[in-house]
Amino acid sequence: MAAPQEPGGDAAFARRIDPAREPGLSPQQRLLMAEVERVQRRRALQRRLRGRNALLALSIGAVAFGIYGYTFYSVSQERFLDELEQEAEAARARAQARAESAAS
């Protein structure tokens, strides 16, 4: 048994042919070969698109997660600032009350 030949060699099972120039092919065989090539190209395109779709889905998910996270962060910061403002107002009121009681 012979060893498999390198790619691009002249092995009969791997020989590339041009259907338009091959004299021994019937029109039905040429049509079948053209259909098989179209199907293979379509599958390759679908694989590429599937990968791009997955990348797009991950990107959209990351953006949505980022917006969601930022919203929670900003709301918590807003509450913190509200609490800080309330404490500042209470401190001002105490300082004013002390100033008024010291002035009297």
From TrEMBL:
Coiled coil start-end: 74-101
Main location: mitochondrion
Organism classification: Eukaryota, Metazoa, Chordata, Craniata, Vertebrata
Name of protein: Cytochrome c oxidase assembly factor 3
Function, in words: Core component of the MITRAC (mitochondrial translation regulation assembly intermediate of cytochrome c oxidase complex) complex, that regulates cytochrome c oxidase assembly. MITRAC complexes regulate both translation of mitochondrial encoded components and assembly of nuclear-encoded components imported in mitochondrion. Required for efficient translation of MT-CO1 and mitochondrial respiratory chain complex IV assembly. Required for assembly of cytochrome c oxidase (complex IV).
Superkingdom classification of source: Eukaryota
Pfam families attached to this UniProt entry: Coa3_cc
Subunit structure: Component of 250-400 kDa complexes called cytochrome oxidase assembly intermediates or COA complexes.
Species of provenance: Grus japonensis
